[in-house]
Amino acid sequence: MTSWTKGKALRPTTKKVFSVAACALALVATNALAHGDEHKTGHKPASTQVVKEQKPWGIAGDATAGVRTIRVSMNDQMRFIPDRLSIKEGETVRLVVKNDGQLMHEFVIGTKKELDEHAALMKKFPNMEHDEPYMVHVAPGGTGEIVWTFNRAGDFDFGCLIAGHYEAGMVGKIKVNSGATAARQSQ
Ligand SMILES: [Cu+2]
């Protein structure tokens, strides 16, 4: 690469401002969409940013001592490594997600149905900003984290919902095995 092109590459300011504005706009749309049916009471505490909301695949957890860490890598071949996770019902895990690619990737937990729908939406609105405690967006070379309590047994999915990635097979499976922690939960 010549020094001329290098010099040019160091000036991304205009582009950045544009994409931030686009994201902010999309964020408003997403919130309206996501919260329309789910927060019927409308009494959201103003101080806390993360509202712990029970989802079919669990609830936001706390990173207390002894929480198991699971490391997952994401790459530009549109794969997660590993792409199969096994968790005990009631277990809180710290998912440390590393982006080993050159592209932006994300890790989003959900049911297959939910992820299918969400991916279709992301394809329609590729710049849509979305942020929930069960997802993390990771820049190239970076690492993100989710702390999640899998308090419901079942088969769930995780995927990268960046436009085109999910469709390219960037998905994984989470199996939450039932019963194992029933005793601990009743204490
Ligand atoms: Cu991706």
Give the tags.
single chain, 187 residues, Immunoglobulin-like, five-stranded mixed sheet, binds copper (II) ion
Written overview of the protein:
It is a single chain. The protein is built from four helices and ten strands, in the order ααββββββαββββα. By secondary structure, it is an alpha+beta fold. The chain folds into two domains: 1-41; 59-185, Sandwich (Immunoglobulin-like). The strands form two sheets. It has a five-stranded mixed beta sheet with strand order 1-8-5-2-3, with no helix packed on it. Mean pLDDT is 78; it is low at 1-48. The structure holds copper (II) ion. Residues 105, 160, 162, 165, 170 line the site of copper (II) ion. Copper (II) ion is lined by residues 105, 160, 162, 165, 170.
